[in-house]
UniProtKB/TrEMBL annotation:
Similarity field: Belongs to the glycosyltransferase 47 family.
Taxonomic classification: Eukaryota, Viridiplantae, Streptophyta, Embryophyta, Tracheophyta
UniProt domain Exostosin GT47: residue ranges: 213-330, 361-569
Keywords associated with the record: Glycosyltransferase, Golgi apparatus, Membrane, Signal-anchor, Transferase, Transmembrane, Transmembrane helix
Residue ranges, annotated region (Disordered): 1-36, 122-144
Gene Ontology MF terms: glycosyltransferase activity
InterPro entries: Exostosin, Exostosin_GT47
Record protein name field: Exostosin GT47 domain-containing protein
GO cellular component: Golgi membrane
Transmembrane found in the keyword field: yes
Biased composition (Polar residues): 129-138
Subcellular locations according to the entry: Golgi apparatus membrane
Keyword tRNA-binding carried by entry: no
Segments crossing the lipid bilayer: 40-62
Amino acid sequence: MEIPVDSKSSPTSPKLLRRVSKQQPVTSHRFSPPENSKRCLQVPTFIICLICLNIWCAFLFIHSFHFCISSPKVDLYCISISTGKHPKLSTAIGPAVPDGAAGGEPEQNWLEKEKLVDLEQAPKGPESAQENMKNLSESPEVERTQESVELANRIEAQAPGMDRNQEPVEMGVREESNRLEGQWGTVAVQSYMSQLRTLAAKGAHVTGERGSCDGRGVYVYDLPSKFNRDLAAMCGDLLPWADLCKYFANEALGEKAEALGPRWYGSHQYFLEPIFHNRIQNHPCRVHDRDAARLFYVPFYGGLDVVRWHFRNVSTEVKDALGVELIRSVGGELRALALVNFFSNLDDFFIIIKNWILKCRWLEEQPSWRRNSGSDHIFVLGKISWDFRRYDNRHWGSNFLLLDQMQKSFKFLIERQPWERNDVGVPHPTHFHPHDDADITAWQLRLSAFPRRNLVGFAGAAREEESIRSALIEQCIAATPECRFLNCNDGGCMKTEVVVGLFMESEFCLQPPGDSPTRKSVFDSLVAGCIPVIFNPFTAYYQYPWHLPEDHQRWSVFIEEEEVRQGKVDVVERLRRVPAEEREEMRRYIVHQIMPGLVYGDATARFERFRDAFDIVVDNVMEKLVGGSAGE
């Protein structure tokens, strides 16, 4: 006999199981939500992640302090979270100074130490200077260091017991030191210039025939747009105070200057990179097969890359990132650098992360680059050399030309570094861009017949009172109307035709140094047939071995800068004494022998009788490569 009560309570009863099963969702919903249970289980994991993140932040905070270590035998080394060196990034970004630059002489940088020379080695004349320089350049670095020590000992002997860090030193010894540095530096620069001139192909600026392209193929890399076209697209934001987009008109030649003629444009002085790029793409010897090429052109707009960061508050790593990315793969280092910058500058962080994600691993992975370590590659940069060589912890410029991989390539800049053999100065872009021989000939005829109403012309802006510019402006105004001054401070130099017109009407054009030794105005005056007056040899004589003749007395007048600054010479009076026949001969030499090689033709230019500045660069590099001296 079955008992109903026991049957209902039995654990095996089907009815009871069904009833419990129906009530379970209610019980679960009311008392034990599964989602909340899972969330509770995840809380410890999240807390652990937060703890790890806090530990990492604390670690970075500790490293945010700036530590510097220095000793007589160890180079200065600093660790910083911001823009200073990072222990794992020094090899990725490149050395701040060449090997052996830092040493036991903290007051003297590596360049100054390299220029010291002993009295017995001072040159006695031009011929012995070149021979002497050859011996110096082949001597071990230890000898120069010993000479530096000997000179330091002589200085210390003049004032025994005096602290080296104290300023007072007997003037005679200081002047001797400066004189020795100047002598060695001048001899070194002259030697480098002589070596570069030996590479120049025959027939400097005028040639009667074109060589064959056999074995002379020119290859143009098709780089990702970030290295050139994207930089050009930023034309409205490259400078905070100016829109540069109008200068990209007419294939980067600028807007037309109709008042001067059909081949005249308002070209920008820093636009050499796109001008050269557009021209070389139409080179008659261009090839699309790397194996058929002898010369390789890398169209990196490094100057525009430098310009866009000049006046922005970004770290040096950001300024260096694009150039480093072009040359080599830095994925691991960029990841570490991104973490560092995440806590110091979010803008830098996102820029570096973008570069890491989109890294190209470009030139070092190209067989054409590895074959000769880049010695058959050329870079054309539209800024001065110092903008690409940041030797110390300053924020100006990049370290692109300090990268080890860049040492064998040819670098063409509007201002070269005097101590670098593979740095070659090339003319600033002028406003005249001929298309063929007829354009050059027509301009030569116009210059020959143009009347020179002014003895002296000067277009420039004043600097500090003690500068040579202030002295020249004062002398020029006092000599009116023989000397005509065009003040660039009040916008007088903004119109191309006004500046070129001044140079065309003047016999002599004053060319003092500006923010750097070189000036675009030197080439504007030469193209206008105006004889440049040079005050610093580094303005022109030690810069452009392939484009300006070594015998500078045939095309310029040199007046010592210091004499003008001290009021020892009246520049206008000095120029007034130059005979009219001599002026005419100099102008004829400039117009017919020099001027054609200073201008850059337009993108499709073809010359038969002349060679423009572009042709001279490509022909001379090719001459070196075909001659078998690449990589030396």
